[in-house]
Amino acid sequence: MSAHGPMPRSAWIFPALAVLLFAVATGLGLEFTPSAGGLLFAAVLLAILFGTVFAAVHHAEVIAERVGEPYGTLLLTLAVTIIEVALISTIMLGVKPVPALARDTVFAVVMIVCNGLVGLCIFIGGLRYREQDFQVSGANLYLSVLFVLATITLVLPNYTLTTPGPVYSAAQLGFVSVVTLVLYGVFLYTQTILHSDYFVGSGSDAAHGEAPLSNRMLALSVALLLVSLLAVVLLAKKFSLVVDVVTAMIGAPPAFAGVLVAVLVLLPESVAAIGAARKNYLQKSINLALGSSLATIGLTIPAVAVAAYVFDKPPLVLGLNTQEMVLLMLTFVISMLTFGTGRTNILFGLVHMVVFAVFLFMVFVP
Asked: Is CATH 1.20.1420.30 the classification given to domain 10-364?
């Protein structure tokens, strides 16, 4: 979907279909079961859910063009994070507890974004322009906050003494959630007010010669964005049933559910990031990619922790295993090298994509 020109029909059809599907499924008591009818329901659900997520991101892009950078990228990131929190919370708080889902999804988002998406954007940009530049100061701020958040939420739980295993005690989880929110909040203040110039690159994908967005279209996009987000939240319960049964049917490892949720919420934003890289606006790609990682950890972990406490669910399993920690540390190192010079080329992109391929392979063949 393009944020320019007339609103595409899919931008309002899919949110309407999502609300209609939820009403029909709830009224008739439709549930997903491993049968012909159940598989048809699952296919329809996934098609409408993906379309609604794309619609939500489209409307966020329309609004983002009006408010400008870096607020526009921030709006896109927050919209995707709301969808992600809804899906994780719904699956995790279902009848069958999944205390490790938040960890698996957050880790999958970091690996998909920092290796798969970043690598693909750099690789595509390198093929088309040989080299692309970006703001080193902005990238360093992203990475410094991301490294701290990822370490205290995904690595440190393995080495605490109050509780054994890869979990935090209630007091520790509460403290980590608070400092995570504070750090992310200060980052947003830095990004939008103190040093917004750090996050605006020299390239631009702005449209030239197009009529400015009217107030009527802006209001319509705001309303449809809210409807789209609400529709995804309403369908999250149905989606959780599909994830559970499909994972069992294909014999996938537990981490597969986290990867599936991450792919669903990141796909539209990934399309926008790749499109920006193709237009030689790598800075926007970096803002979208690294911003998604920060928002996922900075907002998802505290939100899921609160949900687990309120609904009296088992403690969240947050600590990664040794293999995953190695991949995370490797991602940190190559990210510092990639974003340390202010210029990229295809080799940087390929290195990130190889690490992502290793991560994906290890999910199924650990």
From this structure: yes
